[in-house]
Fold this sequence. Notes:
Blueprint: E1 8-13, H1 22-33, E2 37-44, E3 51-54, E4 57-63, H2 70-95, E5 100-104, H3 111-118, E6 123-128, H4 132-139, H5 145-161, E7 164-167, H6 170-179
Helix pairs in contact: 4-5
Amino acid sequence: MKASVGSRVLMLLENNPYPQDGRVRQEATTLVSGGYQVSVICPKRSGQPWHDVHNDVDVYRFPEPPQANGFLGYLWEYSYAMITMFLFSLFVFLRKNFDIVHTHNPPDTLVFIATFYKLLGKRFIYDHHDLVPEMYDVLFENSNELVYQVQVWLEKLSCRLADRIITTNQSYKHIEMQRG
């Protein structure tokens, strides 16, 4: 079965390269087999080209930020990735256009890129891989309550603005519904 009009998907993936992320690869190839045109923006690992086509998926890779540790390291990584991914998304938008922005968390800050494109009439799919607030608490034992609440707010914002939400399991869905 072929996809209808509105079948160009841009996937945003911050924390793993493509095609190494098996879940994202499976989703992308399933969409391609359904007639969708799929582009993925993701980090580039050593030896990978900045652009290639992998099983009919158009892949754009941005250079990884230098490794950093701790809260400031994550802040740097996510800020760098957001700016870089937004610039790459503009390139894809101008070159090929797309109808759907499909974000894979973490980070939930990708909602800001999706919101920009929603203002241009694009649809937004939020693919909820991880509970970022809980992940933050595990990574940083003496976590800051304000940072935790910002993470909860970003997750809620992603869920509220998304046209569709994909969760990895029912327990994540239940938590999303409890948080509102």
